[in-house]
Amino acid sequence: MLRSSLFALITLALPVTAHAQCGGGFSNFVSSLKEEAMTGGYDRATVNRFFKGVRQDPAILKADRAQGVFQKPFVEFSQRLISQGRLDRGRAMSKKYDAIFRRIETTYGIDRGVLLAFWAFETDYGAVQGNFNTLNALVTLAHDCRRPELFRPQVFAALELYSNGDFDPQKTTGAWAGEIGMVQMLPRDILENGVDADGDGHVRLKTSAPDALMSGAKMLSHLGWRPNEPWLQEVKIPADLDLSQTGAYRKKSVAQWQKLGVAPREGRLANPNMKAALLLPQGHKGPAFLAYPNFDVYFEWNQSFTYVLTAAYFGTRLSGADRYDAGNPDKGLSGSQMKQLQAKLQARGHDVGEIDGILGARTRQAVQQEQKRLGLPADAWPTPALLSRL
Hints:
Lysozyme, Helicase, Ruva Protein, domain 3, 7 strands, mainly alpha, 5-stranded antiparallel sheet, two-stranded antiparallel ribbon
């Protein structure tokens, strides 16, 4: 049984020293982590064995700073990630693990396409799980001052997994950001949502597909997934639609969207009373989707709009949906042009977050506001024409 009360004490209740929060000398930072762990109830010998040989890994920091793939627009990004081979293998995996997917659907009400898509994108169905030492990754990112509040608690979660016999500080490997296993879960998520689905007495997310899939499903349920409801659906929009009503944060009932002329590309729309947002990832000339409440849960797993939309869309493909209509979107901006745009938007008083060349949620909102002000189609898709007007 997990010592959840002890883990909560360490991660939530203890005062945190300046060194433990982030920065400073790395050895001093590790010493601070050790002291906190022992104050929380772990014995010195366990703590010393756990942290023995831990080191700062420059490759981790380099990977954290170089996520350029998320600068690509949705159509290009999704076509790059979704190959026929991935579709075919996903369907094969659906058959191979039909029993566990049926169990997931019965227990959590989560469609198998959702888990298959995560499994495919995170590790190519378990084939590529990452070879970074997980403890080094977690401590390096906890020491770094960009996101210490995310990674510091993960160090103690890994210590708890170690004390339970489910983590090896020297041998456990995974992604550069500390995620472990076939669906890439952080240690704290494993503690809270890990499921021994194959009944061997351990949660083995690296080697057991049933454990990984059931744990991923429990995590999605914990994050708020609404059982047996859709998450994304491709639609067609009328030419006279008020585009300023589109976007992830502008939700209407399905009935209201229907009244405005939004129609499904195939099948039928969801319950008329269900709320949904109309997403135009590359503007009104590109693909269009209705995003239902479950779509929001994806952002608890990953913060990239492009990644999330692609994962959600791939889930629909694996569940039988047709390939989207790519349309003929207006030309977008290069990475350097996007940074110029973000700087101009920031100068106009918009909060776009970090000027990173990535079309994130806040940049989209600012773009839409400026498009509306300038009398352009307010579809949140930045073009060279908008950049020129600004």
